[in-house]
Design brief:
The protein is of the alpha/beta class. It is 40% helix and 14% strand. It is elongated.
Length: 852
């Protein structure tokens, strides 16, 4: 049917808005070929028992689906614009239309009148799985391979650039837009006789030749390969690998001006040294570079190789929006692998370490469960970290009944089953649907096309936005019945995790929307639906912050900036909890006290010699060279007297009796050690009341400190559990040093907790963490001795409560607070220090000493 005939038949049925939609949107895009599918003003049954009908503005029917199009429609008739009954009626109309099997969509008045191109792209995304319709707007309905709209624009741009005298040019087209076909079309429009097509991996060559043969079958006999196995240098159209072509003896088989046209596919690899001989040797009439991802991992620019001539560009985001690629549904799940324990060489993770971390049953079960839930029967490519990993994944999927294979460069190894050793046969089988899932490493990143792939599994760290863009692109090609590609990504705390966002067209975490009900973040934009689990977004923020040392102060609040300045000054003045600058290892301390016990009158020089021998023999990597001064930790813990001559206390004698002079097993005397370090009062006569480490005219007084640090810490950890729901009450070392270690009074617990919670919930937590680390001058003196406390467990980066001792600790903290509130607790007084020292040297713990 032609337009005149269509308008003669239906023109009077359409109002102004419907006619504008039809002419400026539907017909503009699908032309005469689309007329056989569309009917305006179609009545459908209400199915409400009244016998009445509803009228649909346009119905489009193909052999694949039927579509209901409403112009202005539902959005225009919003609540308040019409009566409540009419509004409900319109809702019922929409719902019944969908129930009758129509795919329903609405095109607004603004789109029709002001932005018809947006409406065209909306319809294309609606028709994306419908072969009869997408064949029209992709120009596939003519029985031959011809340029689609984007390729036509690029071809015109190429003609323009050559008219301007340019002999080189770069075209950037998202994967799936037909880069290879574009190159073929351009050589055809130039009537090029001698053509060289260069790729970086051999797997791409056959597909490239197939594309040329589809467009110019009459020249099939002129085509040949130039690889390690075949060197058909006499052919007019040659498909070569860079690895073969760049060798001097191979280049010399060609004249430098032999080729009219040279195409370098996946030219983002072109900055590698292996490409330089080819660039310098040949002088064609035109040199075309093709790529989907112009950005390289090593940041070397590609454009200079083409004299900075970017001829045309359409990226993945724009191509999806305009309906040239299928829709994208990306789901980012938290991986249960801790990448912080895997060696990273600055560019990538160690493969052997990755294999050990990723090839584990627990992870496989989680991945298979998600795949069965969401990927089901979808044709799938899974990207793995190594050949071993790909083989492992294929085996695990087969074990649960999923028809899976691994395809890689070492399929001929003897440990492979015979039927799995022919790579070309496996690729053919995967294309033809013999296998559902193909696990690969890097093989399918570029070049090889499987249009009907509906799912991509990302089972490896994303090292760059470029690689992720390529891998996602494997599933974006349009295919009959395929509405979108499902991307299942398993994201851990690897250093390059934040590169995922730009690959998805997302500028940063600030562009994500929080769905509190589902506890996810999402991004929805013109055919791209992206969802991340909440923990994944935390990983992005953390890794983005860690990727640079610079603090982005513009994203931090004034209050936190001021607190950081306060922290910097406080810690520079040494106003924080300390133990000593000397030895902080209790077993070594006890060896020294044992020497003094056996020889109370020993000289300091002899003491250093004796303890030095013991330390060298029994405690490698420890030191005890400062003589009696090195016993500061024992002094503040009440294990030895303050003044000379030094005398060990009953607490030490109790420890010695328990462990019989062998102090290496801390667990034997940890109970006593815990009770002694709990008595540390910050500050007391042993510490002094001013800083000894600065000149006398700069000394800072510590008289404002009035607290027992361990009971302060206990209370904070318990409140984190009881009041805030943190299971173990864990504190990071940063939180301890930034909020606890500068606290001065026992009553500051709630104030300190408030800072910790605000820090944890802060939107830019990781930038704040970087700022606090930068401003904090605290050394690890006090934090190190937490490990000797039986109620505490040291983690990789912090401290938490020992679960088995929590009931006991609750009672002790309660008694401590009762003593403090009733003013029965000994709080150090500068004028009456002996009372405190008597308690400190006692073998009783702090509560027993006070009669509790």
């Amino acid at each position: 049917m032609k337009l005149d005939s269509f308008l003669s038949k239906y023109g009077k049925k359409m109002g102004y808005l419907e006619m504008a939609f039809f002419k400026n949107i539907y017909y503009e895009d699908l032309g005469d070929a689309g007329l056989e599918f569309i009917t305006p003003e179609v009545d459908i049954d209400r199915n409400d028992g009244t016998g009445r009908k509803w009228r649909i503005d346009f119905v489009i029917k193909t052999k694949f689906a039927k579509y209901a199009i409403e112009c202005d429609g539902f959005n225009y008739h919003a609540s308040g614009m019409v009566s409540k009954d009419r509004d409900n009626d319109l809702h019922n109309k929409r719902n019944e239309t969908i129930r009758q099997g129509y795919i329903y969509t609405e095109i607004t008045r603004d789109q029709i009148v002001q932005n018809p191109s947006d409406a065209i792209y909306q319809l294309r995304r609606l028709f994306i799985a419908d072969e009869e319709l997408f064949s029209i707007f992709l120009n596939r309905n003519k029985g031959l391979v011809s340029p689609h709209e984007v390729q036509e624009i690029a071809l015109n741009k190429l003609n323009e650039t050559r008219s301007a005298g340019k002999k080189k040019g770069l075209v950037v087209l998202a994967t799936g837009l037909g880069k290879t076909y574009l190159g073929v079309f351009d050589t055809r429009q130039l009537k090029s006789k001698k053509i060289l097509f260069i790729v970086h991996v051999g797997e791409v060559l056959k597909d490239a030749r197939n594309s040329f043969e589809e467009v110019m079958p009459e020249r099939s006999k002129e085509m040949g390969f130039f690889t390690g196995k075949e060197k058909e240098s006499g052919k007019n159209i040659i498909f070569a690998t860079i690895q073969t072509l760049n060798r001097e003896k191979n280049l010399n088989q060609f004249d430098s001006e032999q080729f009219d046209y040279i195409i370098l596919d996946e030219t983002h690899h072109g900055a590698a040294p292996s490409y330089k001989p080819v660039f310098e040797y040949f002088n064609p009439k035109f040199f075309l570079g093709l790529t989907a991802t112009p950005d390289r991992m090593d940041n070397k620019e590609i454009l200079p190789f083409y004299n900075n001539n970017l001829v045309f560009k359409m990226d993945q985001d724009e191509a999806i929006k305009k309906g040239y690629l299928t829709g994208l549904k990306y789901l980012g799940f938290k991986d249960n692998v801790d990448y912080s324990q895997i060696y990273f060489n600055g560019f990538k993770y160690d493969i052997s370490d990755l294999n050990k971390a990723l090839m584990i049953e627990k992870r496989d079960r989680a991945i298979i469960e998600k795949f069965k839930e969401m990927g089901a029967n979808k044709k799938t490519i899974g990207f793995c970290v190594s050949i071993e990993h790909a083989d492992w994944c294929a085996k695990k999927f087969r074990e649960v009944g999923i028809n899976a294979i691994s395809i890689h460069s070492k399929l001929d190894r003897s440990e492979q089953p015979i039927e799995m050793r022919d790579r070309d046969k496996l690729i053919k089988g995967f294309k033809e649907g013999k296998y559902q899932v193909a696990f690969v490493v890097d093989m399918f990143n570029e070049g090889v096309n499987f249009p009907d792939v509906e799912c991509v599994l990302l089972l490896r760290p994303t090292e760059s936005a470029t690689i992720l863009t390529q891998q996602i692109g494997r599933g974006l090609r349009i295919s009959p019945g395929k509405k979108e590609v499902l991307i299942l990504d398993f994201i851990g705390n690897y250093k390059t995790a934040h590169n995922i966002l730009p690959a998805l067209g997302i500028g940063g975490t600030g562009e994500l929307t929080k769905d509190n009900e589902r506890d996810i973040y999402y991004y929805d934009n013109n055919g791209r639906r992206v969802e991340f689990e909440n923990e994944v977004v935390e990983i992005f923020k953390m890794m983005l912050s860690k990727s640079t040392k610079k603090v982005r102060s513009e994203v931090l609040s004034k209050e936190w900036m001021e607190y950081a300045d306060y922290l910097e000054k406080w810690t520079k003045d040494n106003l924080y909890w300390k133990t000593t600058q000397q030895n902080r290892h209790f077993p070594v301390q006890l060896e020294g006290l044992n020497i003094i016990k056996n020889n109370p009158s020993i000289s300091e020089e002899d003491f250093k010699n004796e303890v030095g021998k013991i330390v060298e023999k029994n405690y490698p990597n420890k030191t005890m060279t400062a003589g009696f001064r090195a016993l500061m930790l024992s002094k503040i813990s009440g294990l030895v007297s303050l003044r000379s001559p030094l005398k060990v206390t009953p607490a030490f004698l109790k420890i010695k009796k328990i462990c019989k002079g062998n102090f290496s097993n801390i667990e034997e005397y940890q109970e006593i050690l815990t009770s002694q370090i709990e008595k540390i009062f910050y500050w007391n006569i042993i510490y002094g009341t001013f800083s000894k480490y600065v000149p006398s005219d700069e000394r800072v007084s510590y008289k404002d400190f009035h607290l027992y640090p361990f009971f302060f810490l206990y209370e904070v950890l318990l409140k984190l559990i009881d009041d805030y729901g943190y299971k173990d009450g864990e504190l990071s070392k940063l939180e301890f040093n930034s909020f606890l270690a500068i606290s001065k009074n026992q009553e500051e617990v709630n104030e300190t907790l408030e800072k910790i919670i605000n820090f944890r919930n802060y939107e830019e937590k990781y930038e704040l963490e970087k700022l606090l680390n930068k401003k904090n001058n605290i050394d690890p003196r006090f934090f190190n001795i937490l490990a000797y406390n039986k109620y505490l467990i040291m983690t990789r980066d912090g401290v938490k409560l020992n679960q088995k001792h929590i009931p006991e600790l609750r009672k002790r903290v309660s008694k401590f607070l009762s003593l403090m509130n009733s003013k029965k607790l000994i709080m150090f007084n500068e004028e009456l220090p002996e009372k405190y020292l008597k308690m400190l040297y006692s073998e009783k713990d702090i509560l027993s000493y006070h009669g509790n």
